[in-house]
Write a structure and sequence with these properties.
single chain, mainly alpha, Hypothetical protein af1432, binds fe (ii) ion, HD/PDEase_dom, HD_domain
């Protein structure tokens, strides 16, 4: 069942107060930027409920700063197999479970967008793509970068630009640290680059 506009608004009000209890101020500032970018990109790319995109942004990193045992106990409780999911992506998988368990908050589209915001996925829905790109635009890396406004404009014109930038940035960062790169991230890099080259 889809969330009504009133429900979306009520949840936004609620999570604006609740999320800061779970993250540091720096992370909260990132979350607010991601939520705003998600709403803007939703408007630019015809996603039917821009406020719902904002809500997805608000919730996307709620478990980012939780310890391993919090993630693990959620995976056990909800019987979710996270074998092969790199450590830095665990929060994306635990966040929807945390939202369900603690607030009885669930929406299928938001769940998918949050779960896929770190690794990407082979068949992303529109909201998945919006949140993935918004997470890049709202990153500390972008916040410090003079090209941010240009990147935002380009992503408003073509969502694949922001998606490519995030996959590129993630892969470069992980290679630099000699970390494992999940196949979904390579896939996201290739798909977004191919579609940019087609234009
Ligand atoms: Fe995240
Ligand atoms: Fe994030």
């Amino acid at each position: 069942m889809n969330l009504t506009p009133t429900q979306v608004n009520d949840w936004i009000q609620f999570f604006q107060k609740e999320i800061p209890n779970h993250v540091t101020d720096t992370r909260w500032q990132h979350i607010l930027r991601v939520a705003s970018y998600a709403k803007e990109l939703a408007l630019a790319h015809g996603y039917e409920d821009p406020d719902k995109a904002y809500l997805a942004g608000l919730c996307h990193d709620i478990t980012k700063q939780k310890k391993m045992d919090v993630h693990q106990s959620l995976f056990t409780e909800f019987n979710l197999d996270t074998n092969g999911i790199p450590f830095q992506a665990l929060h994306a998988y635990s966040a929807p479970l945390f939202l369900k368990k603690n607030y009885d908050f669930y929406d299928q589209e938001i769940q998918s967008a949050i779960q896929n915001h770190t690794l990407g996925n082979p068949k992303p829905a529109l909201l998945d793509q919006i949140l993935y790109a918004a997470d890049f635009l709202g990153s500390d890396y972008c916040y410090r970068n003079l090209d941010l406004e240009e990147w935002f404009q380009k992503t408003k014109e073509n969502l694949d630009f922001g998606i490519f930038m995030k996959a590129f940035q993630t892969i470069s960062f992980l290679m630099e640290k000699k970390e494992i790169i999940h196949p979904y991230t390579f896939y996201t890099y290739n798909q977004s680059l191919l579609s940019l080259k087609e234009i």
